[in-house]
Specification:
mainly alpha; flat
Length: 788
């Protein structure tokens, strides 16, 4: 009986000979894309459960071989090494500071966030099982061709749907791209999938055209749809992947005998595609034409800085990394070159992400696995279906290369596509050996996947089971609701529960500290929480601003000043004045904080100018007296600072003192003449005001015209065309030449009532008023020239 069972398992049957299995396998891959790229836990649960069912029903029968099996097992073991005791290796400085100095309980494991690491390990387990399942398939070329055609057809359909939603503005539930440019939250991952599908689509269409097959029209149309979707995605990487993949596919074809006609057709097709992109690339094409210094190049430079920091972080734990799920908080507390207000979720590279969280050993395993995979893909033969296998191999290489500058390998939807391509690229030769225990083993793995998927689904829908990111989402909602209702104790309780799961998330410390600050006896607890938050976000200005707001509301001026001074330190000179001005506005009703902020005004001119705009008369006089005692001629201030100082002084200080300073130090009138003139005007000394204004006010450009007729004829012509400014100026100048200033002023008055009257008309009026010694009118006209 045992021999019969064993012989049944030894039959050379495969798991994908059934058309249903092929449809299911490709369907799961496409569903991974359609569910928003499966970046959310509920979508990942659905994919894992469906994969478990497929493996249960159609398990493989053959081993993978020693090399891939060992690699997959070691990969999983290295991920689980995050659950080893922390003292088994060197403890990093950031962890020592958190535990020893800030009293953050991080447990005894290497990973500081074991629940999140467990969730990521479960996702990795799915990825490794799915990898082994696909690599164990015994695909024939016909089956591979069928799978690829189904996959590309599905990508075409999804691309068409993405185009429609973009053009109509409709948002498919679960598609969370901010600008509605694809299925994934990050458009680069959508472009990655489109490029992979587009390369294979091109190969299918090219072969169909060569053979003049009736399906060519469908595949060419599909290629056009994918091309439009790629352009909409606004991703340079996707465009480069597509054209590079198509080019490489043709280059690989050159190594096998083919007719010159095929080479010419390939070159023509590539040139045609490039021409279409140059003609209709739109804003996506413009991204390739951006010059240095533009936002596009700045983004690329910033990506390099992130990767530089990530590389340094990875070298601090090169053997086992910091544990899955810990990149974001650890990187944030250690980044230097890329230090910025924007939080970095990943290192812009699959390879560096693995290096940081798992160490460099997994990367070596991947390289060994790639060597094995390439050996199993080669050689290519002239058999039917080999061209699509070459296309699948090219797309797999493109996927791996894209991983150096993006994280498509960490997104389930794009990972499934890349892995299916890699599986199809394998040669149809037999690998491994048939063993009776392989099917039961894979069914056991499927059961484990079923448990993982059920756990995640239960966590999302039923709030049941070990905590996950879905649990954190609910706790965050509870924190927000309780904070809005003023239930401070409930906020602290929810934050405590969240910190049990994610102890490196600064927001929970901040929310807990914000609630404790308003509770009796909670000040020191709040101080401790805010200190932890600052350490976890060492570059954030906002966290210090918000902390100060909390202390301001809790009437803790010293703690408020401490937080805001830290915010000013982090702001630097570029943003510091803007932040300082914000603080002055927020503290107007708190004399202690306002007085504390005054200290910065004593040491910096820009801070002094900002402070004067919020100072009371006594503070204004004190600060200005101190400034003039240090620098009577204001030589330490540049021209722009002098102008701003005089503006604040005139608006909020003693205008007589300002006028006295400007009259005493005439060189300061170059920057302060406007306020001296206004002071004269306020004293009804309009002659001094007007002459000061005319001395320093840059004269407007006046259109030069000369009267070409007598005054009477010019008057008649202007009366006929009263809205003609040029004719009015000619008349005015003729009247001035005849020394008829009253008539000239009358003409100017008519011109200044015209719509969109040029400013120089008022300047001409001021000059006429000066000649007539109409000083107040001259002053008023000059105010129109100056725009005040």
């Amino acid at each position: 009986m045992e021999s019969k069972v064993r012989s049944a398992y030894l039959k050379p049957t495969t798991s994908v000979r059934s058309p249903l299995a092929i449809f299911a396998l490709v369907g799961i891959t496409l569903l991974g894309i359609a569910l928003g790229g499966s970046t959310e836990l509920w979508a990942q649960a659905v994919i894992v459960l469906l994969a478990a069912i497929l493996i249960l029903v159609f398990p493989p029968r053959r081993t993978l071989g020693a090399v891939p099996t060992i690699i997959l097992i070691l990969f999983m073991a290295l991920a689980l090494a995050a659950f080893l005791p922390a003292e088994w290796g060197p403890i990093p400085d950031w962890r020592l500071h958190l535990t020893a100095n800030l009293n953050v309980p991080l447990g005894n494991l290497r990973t500081p966030q074991p629940w999140l690491t467990l969730q990521w390990c479960a996702l990795l387990f799915f990825g490794l099982v799915w990898t082994s399942y696909l690599l164990a398939q015994e695909w024939s070329n016909a089956e591979k061709s069928q799978a690829l055609r189904l996959l590309v057809a599905g990508v075409i359909f999804l691309a068409a749907l993405a185009i429609a939603t973009y053009l109509t503005g409709y948002r498919v539930p679960g598609w969370n791209q901010e600008e509605n440019r694809g299925w994934f939250p990050n458009r680069n991952q959508s472009a990655d999938v489109l490029a992979l599908g587009g390369i294979v689509n091109y190969a299918i269409a090219f072969k169909a055209l060569q053979k003049k097959h009736r399906s060519a029209a469908f595949w060419v149309t599909g290629l056009a749809i994918i091309g439009v979707a790629l352009i909409i995605c606004y991703s340079r990487a996707g465009i480069l992947m597509f054209f590079a993949g198509v080019g490489i596919w043709h280059l690989v074809s050159l190594f096998r005998p083919q007719k010159p006609k095929g080479i010419a057709l390939g070159a023509t097709a590539i040139l045609l595609l490039l021409s279409l992109f140059l003609l209709f690339g739109g804003t996506t094409l413009e991204r390739f034409l951006k010059v240095s210094g533009t936002p596009e190049t700045s983004t690329s430079d910033y990506r390099i800085l992130i990767q530089e920091d990530a590389l340094k972080v990875s070298l601090q734990a090169p053997f086992l990394g910091v544990g899955l799920g810990n990149f974001e908080p650890v990187f944030t507390s250690m980044r230097q070159a890329s230090a910025d207000q924007n939080r970095t979720l990943h290192p812009e590279s699959d390879w560096l992400w693995i290096a940081v969280e798992m160490g460099w050993i997994p990367l070596l395993l991947i390289l060994v696995g790639l060597k094995w995979w390439v050996g199993e893909c080669l050689p290519f033969t002239p058999k039917q279906g080999e061209s699509l296998r070459r296309a699948a191999m090219v797309t797999s290489v493109m996927f791996l290369l894209h991983g150096f500058v993006d994280v498509s390998g960490h997104r389930v939807g794009s990972f499934l596509v890349g892995l299916l391509m890699a599986s199809v690229a394998l040669s149809p030769k037999q690998r491994g050996t048939t063993r009776f225990w392989i099917a039961p083993l894979f069914r056991l793995l499927a059961v484990i996947l079923g448990l993982i998927g059920s756990w995640w689904l239960a966590s999302v829908c039923l709030e049941w089971g070990p905590p996950t990111t879905a649990t954190l989402d609910r706790l965050q909602t509870r924190i927000d609701e309780n904070a809005a209702a003023g239930k401070l104790a409930s906020v602290s309780d929810a934050a405590n529960a969240a910190l049990e799961i994610e102890p490196l998330n600064w927001t929970y410390y901040f929310r807990r500290g914000s609630s404790e600050a308003f509770r009796n006896g909670g000040t020191q607890k709040a101080v401790a929480d805010f200190q932890i938050g600052r350490f976890l976000e060492p570059n954030s200005i906002d966290i210090c601003i918000y902390e100060g707001e909390v202390w301001l509301g809790a009437d803790q001026p010293n703690l408020c000043l401490d937080a805001w001074n830290e915010a000013l330190r982090r702001s630097g000179s570029a943003k510091g004045i803007q932040v300082y001005t914000t603080f002055l506005g927020m503290s107007q009703n708190n004399p202690d904080v306002h007085h504390g902020l005054e200290a910065a005004a004593a040491t910096d001119a820009d801070h002094l100018i900002a402070f004067l705009n919020f100072a009371n008369p006594e503070e204004e006089r004190s600060e200005l007296d101190d400034l003039l005692a240090r620098d009577p001629n204001l030589q330490t201030l540049n021209s722009d600072q002098q102008r701003k100082l005089f503006a604040a002084w005139y608006a909020h200080g003693d205008q007589n003192d300002l006028a006295s300073l400007l009259l005493t130090h005439s060189q300061l009138q170059i920057t302060g003449w406007k306020y001296l003139a206004r002071h004269f005007a306020s004293q009804k000394e309009f002659e001094l005001a007007a002459m000061t204004e005319l001395r320093y006010l840059p004269p407007p450009v006046i259109q030069q015209v000369s009267p070409d007729q007598a005054v009477s004829a010019q008057t008649s012509h202007f009366d006929t065309h009263p809205d003609d400014v040029i004719e009015g100026i000619k008349l005015c100048q003729a009247q001035v030449q005849d020394n008829n200033l009253d008539d000239a002023l009358l003409t100017i008055s008519k011109l200044e009532n015209l719509k969109d009257c040029p400013r120089y008309i008022f300047y001409l009026k001021a000059q006429l008023c000066v000649k007539k010694q109409l000083w107040e009118q001259a002053w008023n006209a000059l105010q129109q020239v100056d725009g005040t």
